[in-house]
Amino acid sequence: MGRMEKPVVHHFVEKTKNLFNASWSKLLASFHQRRTSLSSLYLRFLTLQINPFWVHLHYFLAMSAVGFSALKITKTRTNVTVRPKSLDLFFTSVSATTVSSMSTVEMEAFSNTQLAILTILMFVGGEVFTSMLGLGLQLMRSKFKLTKNNITTTTTDCESQRLENSLNQIELGMVPSLQPAAPIQSQSQLVVEGKNNNTSLLEYSERIKSLDSDSGSGQHLHYNSIKCLSRVVACYLLVVNLVGSTLIFSYMKLLVPSAGQVLKEKGLRTLTFSVFTTVSTFTNCGFVPTNENMMVFRNNSGLLLLLIPQVLLGNTLYAPSLRLLVWFLEKITKREEYGYILKNHRRRRRRQVLPLGYGHLLSRSHSVYLAATVSGLLLLHLALFCSMEWTSSSEAMGGLNSSYQKLVASLFQVVNSRHAGESVVDLSLVAPANLVLIIVMMYLPPYTRFFLADDDDDDTVKTWKKSTKKGKKFVDYILFSQLSYLVIFVALICITEREKMKDDPLNFNIINIAFEVISAYGNVGFSTGYSCQRRLKFDDDDKLCKDAWYGFVGRWSNNGKLILILVMFFGRLKSLEKGGGKAWKLN
Which of 373, 485, 491, 552 is the most exposed place for a label (fewest CB within 10 A)? Predict the structure, then answer.
């Protein structure tokens, strides 16, 4: 009896141990599946349920608040007698974060530490960097889908094993043979029909494995392509800024020491100026550490030529440049991911192709049309600008001796009129016709084109009609167009500044106010400025008037500055809100 009890006890222990291990494995699998489901649900809520407009708005608000706190606790230059007000510091922080370069404080009032803070704000607020954060979310989303797909594949493998066991029973004659089945459309249908219908289990088993292999490889390729694109964008961002800073530093230190002498007289470090100007130019912000912006370097044509490509690579030509870079890498490396990136841009008519979801990834035709449009607008604007400002009687081009300097300065001014905002001329001296043309250029979005790309199938009217059938909110029907909001903002500022418009009509006129508002909306930073010589009334307060090197908004009331802060946020987020105004019919 004693000998027989030992195997029974051993069998009982082994059975208990196996039961415990099985229960523990099921518990871990259930926990892992629940954790994956919760993580997938959170990511889905973050990327799909929340409107990207509100995500970006909170991001820019947070960055602006952090920037304001940093500027507040740091000290300005020692030669500054009056410290900037808190509202002006917040205004500057918002202007740097939204890459608008609207100014209410002279730039030379900021210390090197504060200039470094503004550099960081411009860098993290630039379009390329924020789009890279969006790619990070896409990468997380693809990773969770890949994990979920692996779990589904494991479940399907179990079903396939069961089918193979049944197949073995058929071959042994234990189960009647089955008839061929109808075509299948999904894995779930495949498994169900394999269990319930009289079909060939061998065919089902092989086709299940085939579907799993295709689905898994497609998910892996999609995930790897997003990861590869993220690295390309990050390298593009870092290389352009690093090369640009190096070239400007070398120009100031080695090639043209007289330009570096200007910085030395102003108390600016060459390295600080090089990095600050490169980041500001690439992000199309428009801030320059000098009070006069780039007017102090208008005769340094070499420096202007170094900055012009950075303006284009960071905004209007970023999408074509990115596609050209990916195409070049695909030709050199022959990697499958680069080919996948080129074929799966943001808009596809074929629903079975999963797009990468990167707004700056355009098709080949769209990129070509965009580059042609940018070049055409630049040439047109350059011709009109030179025709009215080339003569020696023009005050705006005064101080430029040779035709070469005038041509380079005109090209620099025209390139910056789209979105960058750096200036080599006093815009208050520019011909009115050129001012109107600059207003139009500032209003145009970066990817404006005048050609119809074959992949652009987003008919806005049809899209709006389809969305109205899905029960959109009442607010969505009464939204105005973006141009209507600009009119409202201009009207509000005219109300807040009505006393100044009455007493100082030459400075506070509707053209200057509209120019300032549209410049803030386009995140450009151009300003006509303020001149004490244009004042009509001269009293005791007017005798204290002193011209300053900051924008026209610097002379506005606090309410006017707050309204322009809203305009800068609105302009920075305008690409995320394009559906307004379609319910309004003016015929």
Answer: 491
